[in-house]
Automatic annotation (TrEMBL):
The keyword DNA-binding applies. This is IS6 family transposase. Pfam families: DDE_Tnp_IS240. Keywords: DNA recombination, DNA-binding, Transposition. GO terms for biological process: DNA recombination; transposition. Residues 76-204 form the DDE domain.
Length: 237
């Protein structure tokens, strides 16, 4: 593990602790790059926002992939939803799937809101999760039912009701906050790259407060931070 960590941060002037903290702040909270720059400067660490952006792109992807490998199989009740995102004056759709506990299963940026786009998301979910859902909850968009028929996914209980899909709709809120902070995303590739890093990190720190007592919540937070330090190869934080 030490050799892998040495290779990860090889030829970087700043130590792993500073890089990991910058990436964690950027993806964990709705902060701009310049805000992270100011927060590090307050602690006496002078890093430009351009360097932080490079760290976020390089190390964020490594951290996210490591989190995915450590993540156990998530829930079998899938909540699917799509939300429009304006990029350079054109409509794109952010398709999102979460389980019954609010953990993000996958996110896909697409230019269409039709059965083909829904089928692409569901096929990706089936491949990554390795099983069909027990229950699928969507809004009343007919594309989901059409995609299920084309794929042959008839074993799950498909519930189409807008009021039942609040969990997926609420999962979009962090992206909406980030969109305002970043003054909109510049391209669909940038958005896909960002959410593919952001959501695994969010999953690592997802503690449903409504079902967890305060002592358990503190234990889970401690466990998440310990896991983060292991993932980022940080010994002291």
């Amino acid at each position: 593990m030490t050799k892998v960590c040495d290779q990860l941060y090889h030829r970087h002037r700043f130590p792993a602790e500073i890089i990991a903290e910058a990436v964690w702040l950027y993806f964990r909270f709705p902060l701009s790059l310049r805000m992270v720059e100011d927060m590090l400067a307050y602690k006496g660490m002078i890093v430009s926002h351009k360097t932080i952006r490079q760290w976020a792109e390089k190390f964020g992807r490594v951290y996210a992939n490591r989190i995915r490998r450590r993540t156990p199989r998530l829930g079998d009740k899938w909540h699917l939803d799509e939300v429009v995102v304006s990029i350079n004056g054109k409509k794109h759709w952010l398709w999102r799937a979460v389980d019954q506990a609010g953990f993000v299963l996958d996110v896909l940026v697409q230019s269409r809101r039709n059965a083909k786009a829904a089928k692409r998301l569901i096929r990706k979910l089936l491949k990554v999760q390795g099983r069909a859902p027990r229950v699928m909850v969507t809004d009343k968009l007919k594309s989901y039912a059409a995609a299920n028929r084309q794929i042959g996914l008839t074993s799950c209980d498909h519930r189409q009701h807008k009021g039942l899909n609040n969990r997926a709709e609420n999962s979009h809120q962090p992206m909406r906050r980030r969109e305002r902070i970043m003054k909109r995303f510049k391209s669909s590739r940038q958005l896909q790259r960002f959410v593919s890093i952001h959501d695994p990190i969010a999953n690592l720190h997802n503690f449903p407060r409504s079902t967890i007592s305060s002592p358990d919540h503190r234990d889970l937070r401690h466990t998440a931070m310990t896991a983060w330090r292991e993932i980022a190869c940080v010994t002291n934080a």
